[in-house]
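Everyone, study these two lines:
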Amino acid sequence: MLKFISFGSGSSGNCYFLFTQTEGLMIDAGIGIRLVKKYFREYGLTLPAVRHILVTHNHTDHVKAVGYLSEELHVPVYATRAVHTGIDANYCVHKKVPLAYKKCIVPGETCELGGFRITPFMVPHDSIENVGYCVQTQGRTFCVITDAGSVTEEMREYIGKADYLVIESNYDEQMLQCGKYPAYLKKRISGSCGHLSNNECTKTVVEHKGENLKKVWLCHLSEENNHPDLALKTMELLLKQTAGEKAPEVHVLRRKVPTGVFDLG
């Protein structure tokens, strides 16, 4: 039985947990260690279930607690060599990943972590480096793409393979342009190494999803430049127009509220 839960998604902290009856895979650890422990208790999970931690990139909202978790649980942290370097240089990450638990991955190279088959792939963002993850286990393919300024051919390929997809839908274009952010920040967010808009996310999923896509979770929504209902309706409307009854379910991952557990069968 494969299950998924989001403990937080957005600039306040990102942390996802994919797990089976025997082991768990954490993707990013950008919320505080106390919150991680609190949420695990509330959902009847045990921290020793975390066997592996994957990191997408070195920004604080994705790695805040990764050093604490790694040291306390004696769990390896998998990231590209550049991302590990970026974590070490990030002054907001007070506890670094112990050397013994640093494991380097290479985009495009598949590795086996327990019952999970992991393939990282490059995602454009203004961090030192950023990857998405294709996770295969129990005959299912789970894909995570966050903090993506633009969509590459490789990203489209993995979206097409996914049974379950977590993908960024960061901002509404009109809200961003009419909002209070300074011009340089608007340019950064909407740039090719910034974030995906609702429209860009929707267009990408609709055009490149595979026939087996069952669920889509919209992640990393902006607090200032988006709204959960707006992101959800933008995606659902076009999916229903193009796929009808075969359209996958769409959910929004809230910024500071856990989702509850999704049963992926």
Q: What stands out?
A: The chain has nine helices and 14 strands. Residues 9 and 254 are 6 Å apart (CA to CA). The mean pLDDT is 97.
